[in-house]
Amino acid sequence: MPTSKMPTWFITGASSGFGLAFAKYALDRGYSVVATARSVNKLEELAAQAPDRVLTHKLDVTVVDDAEQAIAAAVLRFGRIDVLINNAGYGIVGAVEETPIAEFRAQMDTNFFGALSVTKAALPHFRRQKSGAIVNVSSFGGQLSFPGAGSYSASKFALEGMSEALAQELAPFGIKVLIVEPGAFRTNFNADALKYMPAIDAYKATVGRTREYARNLDGTQVGDPFKAARAIELALGAATTPLRLQVGADSAAAVKGHAEQLLKDLTNWEKVAVETQVSADS
């Protein structure tokens, strides 16, 4: 079995956006890359940059067999996977009432179950290596939510909950888990990876603002995806890797504000919380 001397990054959704940026960053660093996407044709230009260090493979994250085959091909080609980046996903903009149940299920199937399937396919290899890292790309919307983001946040909340348990399960094997929570970055996400649900006029004052913001954001984001890739590598290389890494000033500010409000509410209502316990004389 061949073994790559340089790290190997396995990336889902590598044909565009963060996935493509992460792949290019890894190649610039001299690493090997397993670039996966639903359409392998979209990966041809990337593969041409370093044919000896790039393996492209079809991977629809909603198809369990695809995940298992792609992981097996990666190990066969490079001998190991050092960093798995679960990046594939998309967003929905719509109020909970505006979003059909089928759309909720599809969102969960890609953003949560898709990442779960790829992770589960890779876990035996990581345990055998007793090293490596799993990077799950969430969002600051995986820590908090806002009008119109109910479906998207639900999928990312689920991803983060699973990742938090996974990190503790894998720590004894020397395997790291990192949850990445980006803000707005200069990718094509807002142009190509957002689905807008049919609007109900009653939600114009709340969800309407989110729709307008999302539609006008493309091309104006201040986040640099290559700098996000560097931040991820820095976190993975740290002696103590954080469980969650916010990338982008907007993400850091939003998560900090949400955490402060959470702590404030907890403090204000702690007396009520603890008084629900069974009385000593009952």
Q: Your description of this structure?
A:
There is one protein chain. With about 280 residues, the chain is α/β, with parallel strands linked by helices. It has a single domain, classed as Rossmann fold. The protein contains 9 helices and 9 strands. It has helices at about 15-30, 45-50, 65-80, 100-130, 150-170, 190, 205-215, 225-235, 250-275, and strands at about 10, 30-35, 55-60, 85, 90-95, 135, 175-180, 195, 245. The chain has a 7-stranded parallel sheet with strand order 3-2-1-4-6-7-9, sandwiched between helices. Strands 5-8 form a two-stranded parallel sheet. Helix 5 (about 150-170) links the parallel strand 6 (about 135) and strand 7. Helix 1 (about 15-30) packs across helix 8 (about 225-235), helix 3 packs parallel to helix 4 and helix 4 (about 100-130) packs parallel to helix 5. The longest helix has 29 residues, at about 100-130. The radius of gyration is 20 Å and the shape is globular. The termini are far apart. The mean pLDDT is about 95.
